[in-house]
Amino acid sequence: MSKLINISEATTIAIHSIALIGHMDRQLNANEIAKITKFSKNHLAKVLQTLVKQGYLKSMRGPKGGFTLNYAPKDITLLEIFEIFEGKISVDYCAGHIEDCVFNNCIYGDILDDISDEFKKQFGNRRISDVQMR
Asked: Which of 38, 78, 101, 111 is the most buried (most CB within 10 A)?
C-alpha cells in the first residue's frame, strides 16, 4: 500500500519522545523512553542526541540523568521536529525532477503545492502541548 506522506521512523521517534518528555514532570532516560514507547533503544538514542544537538532537549549524564525539554511544549511544533529529520518542506518543485519539461504547465497543477502547504499548516499549527496522553 502506497503512502502519499512518508514520515520516517526517526521523525516518529523524535515526535513521540519529545511529547512524552514534555508531559513528564521529571527527566526521562533513554531506557525509560524506549520501554514506554517500544522503540529500539539504539535508534532512540541516536534520535535523542540529534534533538540535543538541535537544542530541543537537555541531556544530563549519570545514574540520575536523563532528558528534559529546552522549551515549553507549547513552543514546539510538529513541523519543527519533522524538518529536523526530513528536511525543509519544499513548495513549488518538480516531482519528476525535470529541468526542461516538455509540458507548458506542471501535469499536477497546483495539487502538490496545495498538499505541501496544507501539511506545513497542519504540522505547524500542532504543538507538542496539543498531544494528549492516555
From this structure: 78
